[in-house]
Amino acid sequence: MARTKEFDPDAALQSALELFWRRGYEATSMADLVEHLGIGRASIYATFGNKHELYLKALDRYGESRDALMLHELSQAGAALPAVRATVRRFAAEATDDARRRAGCFVTNTAAELAPHDTAAARLVELSWDHVETLMHSALVRAQAQGELAEDRDPRALARMLLVLMQGLRVVGKVSAEPGRVRDAAEQALTLLD
């Protein structure tokens, strides 16, 4: 007879996500995961696979939650351009908030730490960035159709610029103690939408 799991896999995955996000992939050992999750190594392997597979599952979970928030922000009825501005400003605020800035963005952290040599991680990073770009592009197309964005602006190029800006805000915010850098960069970029 099979034993029932003595832990909640969903809660364990969330806990692993938080540990990986805080420490990174390389700095998190299997022993760290066992201790942090409070479950045995064999249970981790049986439920999630090896450390790398668990990391990828955690990254996927992070992307789902972050993408859902952005989808909600950018798909509200009414004017689209204020939602785009608010999303960029939220990224800037999170990047300068002392309680959050040092953690950075899990996707951005993965892009810097693993993506250059890990094709599976790089694929998930690209999927996340594609989704962000698509959400921004859709909102900017809507803004243009509603007369909020000038006809001579390229919504795809603007969406790509905002994606790169938002990822850069996370990197600079993680290291810099000068919040003005991040806020000024975000506000300057937003003038391109005028």
UniProtKB/TrEMBL annotation:
<dbReference type="Pfam" id="PF00440">
    <property type="entry name" value="TetR_N"/>
</dbReference>
<protein>
    <submittedName>
        <fullName>TetR/AcrR family transcriptional repressor of nem operon</fullName>
    </submittedName>
</protein>
<keyword id="KW-0804">Transcription</keyword>
<dbReference type="Pfam" id="PF16925">
    <property type="entry name" value="TetR_C_13"/>
</dbReference>
<dbReference type="InterPro" id="IPR036271">
    <property type="entry name" value="Tet_transcr_reg_TetR-rel_C_sf"/>
</dbReference>
<keyword id="KW-0238">DNA-binding</keyword>
<dbReference type="InterPro" id="IPR001647">
    <property type="entry name" value="HTH_TetR"/>
</dbReference>
<feature type="domain" description="HTH tetR-type">
    <location>
        <begin position="6"/>
        <end position="66"/>
    </location>
</feature>
<keyword id="KW-0805">Transcription regulation</keyword>
<feature type="DNA-binding region" description="H-T-H motif">
    <location>
        <begin position="29"/>
        <end position="48"/>
    </location>
</feature>
<dbReference type="InterPro" id="IPR011075">
    <property type="entry name" value="TetR_C"/>
</dbReference>
<dbReference type="InterPro" id="IPR009057">
    <property type="entry name" value="Homeodomain-like_sf"/>
</dbReference>
